[in-house]
Design a protein that fits this description.
The protein is α/β, with parallel strands linked by helices and 200 residues long. The chain contains 8 helices and 8 strands. The structure holds NADP nicotinamide-adenine-dinucleotide phosphate.
């Protein structure tokens, strides 16, 4: 799959490396294309770097890995996303009556939005462990898009958990608050994850 990653920070760089290592074609897109080029060289596995616009043009699947506070401006600047899948992993800890996913949907033009990875701490993504990393909760209104994201979740070393439509995104906002709370009660190493499994 061709994956365009918007944002070369902790989430974008680590997710991109996982997918490039798994055999996907990855292009990092940055406000500063030189930064994306440097990152692609560090990542290897054929990863490329460019501008955010180049990454969107390149991609079948776009990953929005920017701070929530920057998301509206970034999405407006990108314009029409051509019906492509947009994975968004943002968290808005100030949200009250509207979820970050609903906001992203309203700002993204012509994209099939799937929320995923918002409960995964970046040190887990950046670790050397390639599989058995626990659950990634997914919400979205397009079943085919969710199935594609499910494949990418597996390729990144996790188990996808279909958590419903975008109307269910508030569960993911609650779960991220819970895991941040649990992490605070432990050693703060941000290396814990949920793992949903059948036990009987
Ligand atoms: N870190 C985590 O553990 C974690 C876990 C779950 C979800 N998330 C969510 O994932 C998203 C990315 O988090 P992150 O930890 O990867 O953040 P980060 O390390 O700060 O990186 C964010 C990247 O976004 C890009 N960006 C574009 N516009 C920006 C702006 N106005 N200000 C700052 N950066 C801008 C930058 O890349 P360029 O300079 O290349 O454009 C930057 O490197 C956030 O929405 C966060 O809530 C994070």
């Amino acid at each position: 799959m061709k994956i365009g990653i918007i944002g070369t920070g902790r989430m974008g760089s680590a997710l991109g490396k996982r997918w490039a290592r798994a055999g996907h074609e990855v292009m990092f897109g940055s406000r500063t294309p030189e930064k994306a080029h440097t990152l692609s060289e560090q990542v290897g596995f054929g990863a490329q770097g460019g501008s955010t616009e180049q990454a969107v043009l390149f991609a079948d699947v776009i990953v929005l890995a920017v701070p929530f506070r920057a998301a509206q401006e970034v999405l407006y600047a990108l314009g029409d996303l051509g019906g492509k899948i947009l994975i968004e992993c943002t968290n808005d800890f100030n949200a009250d009556d509207i979820t970050s996913a609903e906001n992203i949907v309203s700002w993204a033009c012509n994209a099939r939005v799937v929320k995923a990875f918002n409960t995964i701490f970046d040190p887990i993504l950046a670790s050397d462990k390639l599989s058995d990393l626990g659950s990634v909760f997914i919400v979205g209104d397009d079943d085919a898009a969710k199935a594609t994201v499910g494949t990418l979740v597996r390729d990144a070393g996790f188990e996808p958990v279909d958590t419903g439509g975008l109307a269910d995104a508030h569960y993911l906002d609650t779960l991220v608050r819970l895991i941040v709370h649990l992490n605070g009660g432990l050693d703060g190493k941000r290396n814990i994850n949920f793992h949903i499994r059948r036990v009987v």
